[in-house]
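Continued from yesterday's entry.
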Amino acid sequence: MNDHDFLQRVFARGNSYWLTRFVILRLISFVYAIAFLVAARQLVPLIGEHGLTPANHFLEAMQAQLGSRMAGLLQLPTLFWLAISDNFLSILSWSGFALSLVVLAGYANAIILAILWMMYMSIVHVGQIWYGYGWEIQLLETGFLSIFLCPLLDGRPFPKCRPPLLVIWLFRWLGFRIMIGAGLIKMRGDSCWRDLTCLYYHYETQPIPNPLSRYLHFAPHWFHQLETAWNHFVELIVPWFSFGPRTARHIAGVLLVSFQIILIISGNLSFLNYVTIIPFLACFDDTFLCRILPKSLVRRAEKAAQESEPSRINNSIAIALSILIAYLSIAPVLNLVSGRQLMNYSYDPLDLVNTYGAFGTVGRERDEIVFEGTQDAFITGDTKWQEYEFKAKPGDPNRRPAIIAPYQCRIDWQIWFAAMASPAEYPWTLHFVWKLLHNDPSTLSLLAYNPFPNAPPRYIRARLYRYQFAPIGDRAWWKRERIGEWLPALSADDAELRRLLGAMNWLD
C-alpha cells in the first residue's frame, strides 16, 4: 500500500476535516489581518475625533436616539461604548492585526478567534458609511463560525480535538446563502443580467478597476454573454451540490473557489472574494486536500487524526450552535424567497446570520468626481487648477489602474458612490473639502499625493467627468469628458460652507 492510499484510509475514517480546518483558519486569519491593517491606517482620518465622520458624534447620536448608553450597546454592540478616542481606535486596530498574524502563523483557539470577532465587530459598528459593505458582515458571520472550529484553549495547528462536523455543515450553509443571494438579486434586478449583457459594462464601471479590467472590457460580446451565463450557473446551480456526496461536493468546491479567483484577478473588490472562498473550503475534506497540500502538513494532520478523541462538550456546543443558526436563518431564508429581496442585510445586532448579494444593478457609464484646488486669490478664466489624485480610483487618464485588493481604500469607494448622487446626499464631502482647504495631514494621508505641499489651496472645487477605457494600444488608460460641476469653488471663508459644517459639528 503506498502513502497516498494509506492517508486516504486514515482520513476516510470518521471526522476527516483536519486539513480543512487548518486551511479555513489560515485564510480567515489572512482576511482579518488585511481588514485590521486597513482599519489601522484609515480609521483615524475617517472616523477619528477629527475625522470626516467622527465616531464619537455617531455614538452620541445613537445614545440620544435610543435613550441610554446601555440601549445603544444592546442595539449596536461595540467596545467603543466604553471609550472612543484616536488612540483607542489605533490600539484596537493594530492589536487585531497582530493577533491575526498569530493565527496565520498557526496558533488558534476559540478564545483568540472570539477576541478577533469582537474587535472587528466593534469597528464595523462604528464605521458608518465607510463600513457599510456586505463583506464586513460576511467576515463577522464567517469569523463567528470559525470560533467553533477550534478547541477552547489548545491552539496548536492540529489539536487532538476533532473538527466538529456540524460546524463544517454550517460553513456550507453560509456559502450556499452567499451564492444563492448573489444569483437571485441579479435575476430579480438589472435586466442586463437576464439578457446576458451586464458584462458589456461591468469591467469599466465597477468601483475600482485593475489593469486586466481594461482588456476584459474589450473582449467580444459573445465572450461576455458566455461569462454571464456561467455566472448564473455557478451562483444558482452549483451551490446546491455543496451538500451532496463527496465527489459532487469536491467538484462544486473547485467551481466555487475558481469562480472567486477569477473575480479576484478581474477587479479590486476589497477582501470580498477572499472571505467568500472560506465557506467553500468546507466542501473539501482531507481526502481531497491531502492531494494538494505539502506532505509534511498532511503527516501532521494524519497523526492528529490517529490520536484524536471524541469530545461530548464540543459536540454539545456544535449542536447548540446549529440550533441557533437554524433559528436565525429563518428571516434570511424568507428574504431569499420573497419578491422584495434585501441585499447585504443583518437581522440581529451581532450580525450572526445575514443575507447577501452583489451587483444587483450594473452601471452603463462611469462618472468620476475630480477634486481640484488653486492658490490663486481670485477665480478667473486663467485660474490654474491642480487635481488631487487618489490612491486607487481613476483620476489621471495616463495613470495605470491600481492593483490593490484585498486592501481597500475606503474613501475611493465612497467617492465612486458619490459620483452617482449629489453633495446633499454625501455631506461628508463638504467636510473633506474643508480638510483640503486646511491641508489636514490626516485627511491627506488617504490620498496619493498633495499638490499643495507648501501652503493650502485658496479654493477647492469638484468637477464631474465621464470616463471610458481608452482603446487597447493607446498610451493612455482612460479617456474622459467633462460633463458638469459637482461642487462649486469653495473657500475657507465661504459663509454657507461654514454654516453647513457648523450645523453638523464639523467645523474644527
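--- second protein ---
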Amino acid sequence: MTVSLPRGRVLALGGLSSFGPLALDLYLPALPQLTADLRATEAAGQLSLSVCMIGLALGQLLVGPFTDRVGRRVPLLVGVGLFAVTAALCAAAPSIELLLALRLLSGLAGGAGLVIARAMVRDLYDGALAARMFALLMLVSNIAPVVAPLLGGLVLRVADWRGVFLVLAAVGVVLLGAALTQAETLPADRRRTGGLRGVATVLRDVVRDRRFIVPAVVQGIGVCGMFVYIAMASFVLQGTYGLDPQGFAIVFGVNAVAIVLVGRLSAQLVGRVGPRRLLAAGVVVALLAAVAMLVGVLLSRSVWALLPPLLVLVSCTGVIMPNATALALADQGRAAGTASAVIGLLQFAFAAIVPPLASLGGVTPLVMAITILATATGAAIVQFGVRVREPAATG
C-alpha cells in the first residue's frame, strides 16, 4: 500500500530545494541591463552567476555539518531570512563589486535551504519512502527553472533589474514562511557533539563510506549531462540549428516538463521497484540516450536527430537524482547534514567545472554530445564498477 506523504511538507521542502534555480535563473533576463547600468564588463556580469554558484556549494558544506550538532530549524530560518535580506540589498547595490559580494552571501544563504531540506527528509524517512519523498520534492523544485526566467522577463516589462531582485526578496519571504511551518526534525538526543575536529572526523567517515560516496558520485556525474545541456543548448540550438528564441523556449520547457513527469513516475514506482533498481535503470537509459545523441549528430545535420535523445537523457534526471540521494543518505541518519552537504558540493562542483572545460573546444553539437556521453559513461562506470553492500536502512 502506498503511504501518503504530507502535502504541506512536500510543498514547503520542495520550495526550499529550489534555491539554486531561483537564485540563478530569475535574474538571467536582466543580466545585460544590470551590467550596463552598473557600468561593468560582460565578464563581471557573468561573474555574478559564478559567485552565487560558489556560495551555493560552500553554503551547503558549511551549514550541513553544523546542523548535525545544533538541529535543522534554527539554521534553516537564519539562512532563508538572510537570503531574503541579501536579495533586497542587491536591488540597492550601487556598484558591481558590492553586488558580487551580496550575491556570494545570497548563495551561502540559499545553500542552507538546499542542504537542510535534504537532511530533514532523511531525518523523517528511510529507504523507498525517502526516495519517494525526494522525487516529490523534485516535482516542486523543478518548476522553478521553468518559471523563474519567464517571471524575470515579465518583471522587466514593468521594472528594471532592481525590481527583479525585489521580487526575489519577496520569494525569499514566502519561503521563510514555509520554513516557519516546519518543526525541528533532529531531536537533541540524536545530535552530534564535538568541535571542528569532530566535524572533520564525521566528514572523513562519510566520504570513506562506499554506501554513501558511490551513489553520491553517480548523482553528481549523472546529472552533469543536464548542466552541460543547460550551458550549451542556447548556442547549439539557436546558433547552429537556427532555432528562434521562441523555439528554444519550447524545447527548454518540454525538457523541463519531462523531468517532472519522469520524477512523478519514479515516485510511483519506487515502493515496488526500489531505489537501487530505479537508479540503475536511469543510468543505463541515460547512457543509451547519450550514445544515440552522438550517433545522430554524426550522421545528420537535422535538429531532430538531436532533440529526441536529448529529451530522454534530460528526463533521466527525474530518476537519477531522487534515488541516488535516497541511497546515499540511507545509512547517514546520524550525519545527514554532513552527507547532504557533500552531495550538494559534488553536484555543484561537476556542474561548475565540466561545461566550461568542454566549451574550451568550442560550443558545437558534437562537443555537447561527446561531453554528455562522457558524463553518462562516467556515471555508469561508477554505478556498475564499484561493489557496494546493501544499505542497512529499510523502506
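Residues 42-70 form the longest helix (29 residues). The chain has two domains: 1-190, 192-388. Will compare against the first tomorrow.
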